[in-house]
Amino acid sequence: MGRILAIDYGQKRTGIAVTDPLQLIANGLTTVRTADVLPFLASYIKNERVDTIVVGYPRQMNNLPSNAVKYIDPFVRKLKAVYKDKEIVLADERFTSKMAAQAMIEGGAKKKTRQNKGIVDMVSAVIILQSYLESRNYRH
């Protein structure tokens, strides 16, 4: 069984989270510059078995895609072209940045750490992945 990798894709930075090989626990992996995300993924997937890639997909309160999808859709198309053997899943990412900030506060992170947008992006990816895992378990 391979890992599940989650991506919080942003215009400048992209947060990445991954499960353990048993697909039970979501962990923050890293934050990379968005320009470097495809080479990073290629390297990671070369060294680790990944079955599924979950991409955070921003929606508005009325459930319609937000304006940010104009950046995410081309990225998702590239992922699907490069990783034909992987399941590519879009996951609702509404409120993940706020949830990440709140989780960091509750976890005792110092203000300086909470202001590090790279860490917030990585925690957002963990929340996207954890939500995906919970929804998948709920369906089974």
Would you write up a description of this structure?
The protein is of the alpha/beta class and 140 residues long. Helix content is 45%, strand content 26%. It has helices at residues 37-47, 69-82, 96-106, 111-114, 117-139; strands spanning 3-9, 13-19, 26-33, 50-57, 87-92. A five-stranded mixed β-sheet has the order 3-2-1-4-5, with helices on both faces.
Number of helices: 5
Taken as a percent bin, the fraction of beta residues is 25-35%
What is the strand arrangement across the widest sheet?
Answer: 3-2-1-4-5
Give me the strand/helix succession. Answer: EEEHEHEHHH
User: How confident is the prediction overall: mean pLDDT?
Assistant: 84
Using the CA coordinates, give the radius of gyration: 14 Å
Helical/strand content category: alpha/beta
| Unreliable segments of 5+ consecutive residues | none
How is the quaternary structure best described? single chain
Roughly how many Å apart are the termini?
A: 17 Å
Largest sheet: 5 strands, mixed
Number of strands: 5
| Helix share bin | 40-55%
Q: What is the overall silhouette?
A: globular
